[in-house]
Automatic annotation (TrEMBL):
Name of this protein: protein acetyllysine N-acetyltransferase
Pfam families: SIR2
CC terms in the record's Gene Ontology section: nucleus
One term of GO molecular function: NAD+ binding
EC number: 2.3.1.286
SUPFAM superfamilies assigned to the protein according to its UniProt record, in alphabetical order: DHS-like NAD/FAD-binding domain (SSF52467)
One of the protein's GO biological processes: negative regulation of transcription by RNA polymerase II
């Protein structure tokens, strides 16, 4: 199948803002913004990267809403000129840099809307990635729900049957499953994969830095996930050529190519971007490989997430208490509470001199 997988999806009207002009920061601006980003990366404990179609355009795969995107052209009655198939495309500099940043413990999780399988093919382990919209190089059993890596992109989209038996018996070397394998690509309004979404939610909330690469953040719920960390004090960074839905809430926006930003980050961290090679690509491995998120990982992440929610609530209630203790009464109330006021010896109620004074008399 060529990269125009969009042909296999149902018709859908609301595809968001299409074809917005691309913007480019000056070289100097990119440099200074990247310096700030590096500082944040070095000072963050949990970094999550959210990726969209913009990180795969350098591999020859068209995006959706760019000036030459699939949906932008569709609206003009045109089709993208694609010269590459999913099987031929290879991971870009950004994919390979992200894989290395995970190995070096700078990046802790990737949340991707991409179905091209290039993260998988860069060698990223399953416990470090959520694929919210599916993956052309995986299939899933309709009975046991196990996912398997494929050696070729699926021929269907929209979770259709591939007419292949579940491979679970081969993996477990035990009882066989009677299920059939299906592709994992979501059609419009399909439910997102449960564990992938749950892990994305926890990681995005826990992150003190959510970095969005090559996405206009228009698809929900994927596009809203990076904002989860704001409540808990985390930062959001956007690297994209077009404006995104959440630019106003971003702490830093870099308008340039993602590959250029990743190249600068790697250089400043003293790291090389590894070359793609078939030996690291699970789709080139003849052995059967499962591609499942472990339930234990979900439970562990849930516990970490619940702790930050608990800490947040505790902090908020403490702040509320302190605020109420320091609340300055309205003039009238203060007058009533003061003998002097009653005696009419003063004509205005002055605020207490020290607002940090723990005088409970002023609690309303
Ligand atoms: Zn099965």
């Amino acid at each position: 199948m060529s990269c125009s997988y969009a042909d296999g999806l149902s018709n859908y009207e609301n595809k968001g803002v299409l074809g917005s002009p691309e913007k480019f920061d000056s070289e100097e601006k990119v440099e200074s913004k990247c310096n700030l980003l590096i500082e944040w990366i070095k000072n963050s404990k949990h970094i999550v990267v959210h990726t969209g179609a913009g990180i795969s355009t350098a591999a020859g795969i068209p995006d959706f809403r760019g000036p030459n995107g699939v949906w932008t052209l569709e609206k003009q009655g045109k089709k993208p000129n694609i010269s590459i198939s999913f099987n031929e495309a290879i991971p870009t500099k950004t994919h390979m840099a992200l894989k290395h940043l995970i190995e070096k413990n700078y990046v802790h999780y990737i949340i991707s809307q991409n179905i091209d399988g290039l993260h998988l093919r860069s060698g990223i382990p399953r416990n470090c990635i959520a694929e919210l919209h599916g993956n052309m190089f995986t299939s899933q059993c309709n009975v046991c729900e196990s996912q398997f890596v494929r050696t070729e992109a699926t021929s269907t989209v929209g979770k259709k049957s591939l007419n292949e038996d579940c491979k679970r018996s081969a993996v477990l070397r035990g009882r066989s499953c009677r299920g059939k394998l299906h592709d994992t690509i979501l059609d419009w309004e399909d439910s997102l994969p449960e564990f992938d979404l749950e892990m994305s939610d926890y990681h995005s909330s826990l992150a003190d830095l959510n970095i969005c690469l090559g996405t206009t953040l228009q698809i929900v719920p994927s596009g809203n996930l990076p904002l989860r960390c704001k409540k808990y004090g985390g930062k959001v960074v956007v690297v994209n050529l077009q404006p995104t839905k959440h630019d106003k809430k971003a702490d830093l926006i870099i308008n340039t190519y993602v590959d250029a930003v990743l190249a600068k980050i790697m250089k400043k961290l003293g790291l090389e971007i590894p070359e793609y090679h078939q030996t690291i690509d699970p789709t080139k491995n003849r052995e059967l490989i499962e591609w499942n998120i472990s339930k234990k990982d979900v439970i562990d992440m849930k516990a970490r997430y619940e702790k930050i929610v608990k800490d947040y609530k505790k902090r908020k209630s403490e702040e509320k208490l302190i605020k109420s203790q320091h609340k300055i009464p309205k003039n009238e109330d203060w007058m009533k509470k003061n003998e002097i006021g009653k005696k009419g010896l003063i004509f205005k109620a002055e605020k207490p001199e020290d607002e940090d004074d723990d005088d409970n008399e002023f609690i309303e």
